[in-house]
Write a structure and sequence with these properties.
The chain is an all-alpha fold and 313 residues long. 78% of the residues lie in helices and 3% in strands.
Length: 313
């Protein structure tokens, strides 16, 4: 019995990451493509953080929440892409069991934090459009700090149960993770232990957090749409809708990929499909967020101009 237990533990020392293609001639082109996208993600989100931090007129709840969203985007791309880039350039696709759990922890933590931040942003838009006269009392800086603090606490606590259960699994069936990072589904797929508890906790916690924040976001936007439709002037409707269209676009992409990836049993895991949706979630969302939120935002553009003038002078 002791020998079997020890053997199972030895099987958990390291994993092999199976990336997009085994053809060596494709790895460098993929490396440069992902490196270019990663640099764009860092530059775009760092720009948002610096501009909001350095512009006093942007120190409002909406922009503070956006700053936190950019921090999350930088966090979870930096949690995954540097390791992927290292594999692509060194051809060493090995990750230790501890590093794998750390990567999984931060991936779940940052994703959980993001759903709460997105819900808070939806509530902020609801108050701004449906309750404009009470905005400063319902969405003060104090409320905003409470939302962001709660989001980070929930995010950091959420993965602890997952990590605790996964750390007790044995992986004697296979050491090859058919994914480009340590995600929950591919790990459960290669475990020779009973994964029922892990899957059940994933459904329970995922449903409580993801569905509750999604419903809050959905209700906020239903009320926003009803309010916008009551506005008589076309210009007024357009102006009201433009203030929340950016956020609506981002949450559509975010929740679309999340539900395709995680709201189904591990038995239906499809490696190629999951890699595609994971890439959308990890690369496309943080790449588009800075563009979508800043492209039509005159306040943000003014903040960029003010910051440039400060640097030049």
């Amino acid at each position: 019995m002791y020998k079997m237990k020890q053997e199972a533990q030895n099987n958990m020392t390291e994993f092999t990451i199976h990336i997009f293609s085994e053809k060596s001639e494709l790895q460098l082109p993929i490396f440069f493509t992902i490196l270019f996208l990663y640099i764009l993600i860092l530059c775009g989100n760092l720009t948002i953080i610096v501009v909001i931090w350095g512009s006093s007129h942007l120190h409002s709840p909406m922009y503070i929440l956006l700053l936190n969203l950019s921090l999350i985007d930088i966090g979870y791309t930096s949690n995954i892409l540097p390791k992927l880039l290292n594999i692509l350039v060194t051809y060493r696709n090995i990750i230790s069991f501890v590093d794998c759990l750390v990567q999984l922890y931060f991936f779940i933590a940052l994703a959980s934090t993001e759903v709460v931040i997105l819900a808070a942003m939806a509530y902020d838009r609801y108050v701004a459009i449906c309750r404009p006269l009470r905005y400063h009392s319902l969405m003060s800086l104090k409320h905003c700090v409470g939302f962001t603090t709660s989001a980070w606490i929930i995010g950091l606590l959420d993965p602890t149960v997952h990590i605790s259960l996964v750390s007790k699994l044995s992986f004697c069936a296979s050491h090859q993770i058919d994914h480009f990072f340590c995600d929950l589904s591919p790990l459960l797929k290669i475990s020779c232990s009973d994964t029922y508890k892990v899957e059940m906790m994933n459904y329970i916690i995922g449903s409580l957090l993801t569905l509750s924040t999604f419903l809050l976001t959905l209700v906020s936007y239903v009320l926003i749409i009803f309010t916008i439709l009551k506005i008589k002037s076309t210009e007024g409707r357009h102006k009201a809708f433009s203030t929340c269209s950016s956020h609506l676009t981002c949450i559509s992409i975010f929740y679309g990929t999340i539900m395709c990836l995680y709201m189904r049993p591990a038995s239906s895991y499809n490696p190629e499909q999951d890699k595609f949706f994971s890439l959308l979630y990890i690369v496309l969302v943080p790449l588009l967020n800075p563009i979508i939120y800043s492209l039509k935002n005159n306040d943000f553009k003014n903040g960029v101009k003010i910051l440039i003038n400060k640097l030049v002078l």
